TrEMBL record:
S-adenosyl-L-methionine binds at residues 51-53, 86. This is 7-carboxy-7-deazaguanine synthase. Belongs to the radical SAM superfamily. 7-carboxy-7-deazaguanine synthase family. GO terms for biological process: tRNA queuosine(34) biosynthetic process. It is an enzyme of class 4 (lyase). The lineage of its organism: Bacteria, Pseudomonadati, Pseudomonadota, Gammaproteobacteria, Lysobacterales. Keywords: 4Fe-4S, Iron, Iron-sulfur, Lyase, Magnesium, Metal-binding, Queuosine biosynthesis, S-adenosyl-L-methionine. GO terms for molecular function: 4 iron, 4 sulfur cluster binding; carbon-nitrogen lyase activity; magnesium ion binding; S-adenosyl-L-methionine binding. Binds 1 S-adenosyl-L-methionine per subunit. Gene3D superfamilies: Aldolase class I. Residues 32-226 form the Radical SAM core domain. Substrate binds at residues 26-28, 41, 84. The keyword 4Fe-4S applies. The gene is queE.
Length: 226
């Protein structure tokens, strides 16, 4: 269920974030897949991946006071929270929101493109860093300095569109020793790569990665707010 509208009161810009939606659903991917989760979707993204499924979050949105965001999250009564976008780190006050969510006792994850610096993100947050493949058309935006910041609490995700993307991701695994740093997730791009084909490649190569499909898409297709 999408959030109610934010309270119509004047708040200092320093305490606000622009949100596209807040909603309760099942986490569809990463290491908390299947858990009831509140999603806080921030508006805006500097990337334009060719397979993007949340382009509706590029523009628009409403300004929310950070304390009102926390109140809306609390209203849903679950312990898992995912801050996503768009690209949430494109709004600098996202760092403050993540810290406050952790302070409130939530299990917090951050879905980020990996194009922006993750070093200031609270270490209690599980940072899910989406490294962009060649066929995403945004590979040049990868900030590889982020890799050194990864801990076992974090995750790296590759959305793969082709065999070429798969081979590139395999090289990244070895070059940066990603499986030794954190969990690595391989996902098929919904319209471009057969899930079965990707699964067969992973098994044949015995890769130390987790195959995943987006549970929310299997259940609700691309319906916003689910």
């Amino acid at each position: 269920m999408n959030a109610v509208a934010p309270p119509a009161v004047a708040t200092p810009a320093a305490d606000r974030l622009k949100l596209t939606e807040i909603f309760l659903s099942l986490q569809g991917e990463a290491n908390t897949a299947g858990w009831p989760t509140v999603f806080v979707r921030l508006t805006g993204c500097p990337l334009r991946c060719q397979y993007c499924d949340t382009a509706y979050a590029f523009q628009g949105g409403q300004w929310w006071n950070i304390d009102d965001i926390l109140a809306e999250v609390a209203r849903h009564g679950v312990r898992h929270v995912c801050v996503t976008g768009g690209e949430p780190l494109a709004q600098k006050r996202c760092i403050q929101l993540l810290q406050k969510l952790c302070d409130a006792g939530y299990q917090v994850s951050l879905e980020t493109s990996g194009a922006l610096d993750i070093s200031e993100v609270d270490t209690r947050v599980s940072r899910v860093v989406d490294l962009k493949t060649p066929d995403s058309l945004e590979m040049h935006r990868n900030l590889l300095d982020n890799i050194a910041q990864l801990t076992p609490h974090d995750q790296v995700k590759f959305v793969l569109c082709s065999r070429g993307d798969y081979e590139w991701a395999k090289q990244m695994l070895q070059q940066h020793q990603l499986p030794q740093r954190c969990d690595v997730l391989f996902s098929p791009s919904k319209s471009e790569l057969s899930p079965r084909e990707l699964a067969d490649w992973i098994v044949a190569d015995r890769l130390p990665v987790r195959f995943q499909m987006q549970l929310h898409k299997l259940l609700w297709n691309d319906e916003p707010g689910r």
